[in-house]
Amino acid sequence: MIARVRVGVEWLGLGFAVALAACGANVRGDLPAQGRDVWLDDATIGPIEGCSRGDGTGRGRWEVIEHPPGFSRRAGAQVLAFDRSIAIIGGYGEDNTATDNWRYEHETRRWTRLGAAWTSVASRSMTAAWMPEAREFFVWLGPEFGRAGRGVRLALDGTAREVSMDGAPRTFVQRAAAVAGMVFVAAGVSEGDHNEFALYDPRSDRWESVQAPREQNARAAFSLVADGRSVTMWGGSDATSSTGGSRDDGWRFDVLARQWSGVSRVRAASGRWGHDALWIGDSMWVWGGYNRWNVRTGGRYFAGPDQWLPVSGLGAPGASSETTSFAHWSAWTGSDVFVWTLTATGEASAGRWDPRADRWFAAEPPPLAATRREAASVWSDCALYVVGGRHGQRFEFATEVLRWVP
Question: How far is CA 79 from CA 17, 137, 278, in A?
């Protein structure tokens, strides 16, 4: 059945709120125009804009990519998209190490080993970012196993070099994002009750400390999203409280102006930690996470007007009960958000969220999803890649690299 729906910030008889989103790269983050008519197909969301593959139903198909010899079984890897390629960095496996890092090019289906001169160390606090101007990867390994944290730059030619530690964060780096030619890092609590922030300049191999706003307060399990000029940190849990209460506030840092500004809490997504957050062209999209139980709702934050719009949870993938624990992964396709989930018992589900109508459509989860706990997902060149993972009960690690094409 085809239904014509008037789009606006209003509640419809169907029981969900809808809002129209401009899907361009609007860094200002203006609110979407209201009141346009769109056509919604009840059966499918349809093809992804700019992607000509598939049969047009939007259900897509999964396929296995053959990996090269020496590719380690792993979970917890960092997977980044760049230059119509993906990079697979670090992670941990049966012997607690993943010493190999790889690049996979979509068109040629070619594998290249990255950082062959560098032996990575398994670290659950590892984070990475692609530095497009420097044409290198920034990788930070948190302090574990009695050693201090350290940074490494991996080049596409297989070479590696250490990042300067002069002025580097003293605590483990929780999040890193490339923005405005630099890398912004958000670390743990180092002094008082505030997180530690810094900027790394790959041109000079130097660090610049970033003063935290007085009201920011310490947090963990927050999200960090970059939009080309600024970064927004939001949500998380209280890092100085034994109860670890969830947060519904955030801060935005303009890298060029070196200036912080608060994120509105009016109509904001409910407080949560461990949530997904993505930049979807004109706004920050927040979904899922945990409070007392699982959260199956979200919100969109528009920086220009400093305002939020809700994201419906009606029809979203996830556990059938809010008391059932489930993990989730998400990726922005350029026109919608693909989300897949996995419960502790191995129940998998997936969906695509349409920003034009604030509506969820069914999608296919990865095959053998029960072995994909702590997997990594990324969208690149009209395909969703899922790398590694482990079986939740037996700690068996996966080697397959999966790809979903619409």
Answer: 33, 11, 15
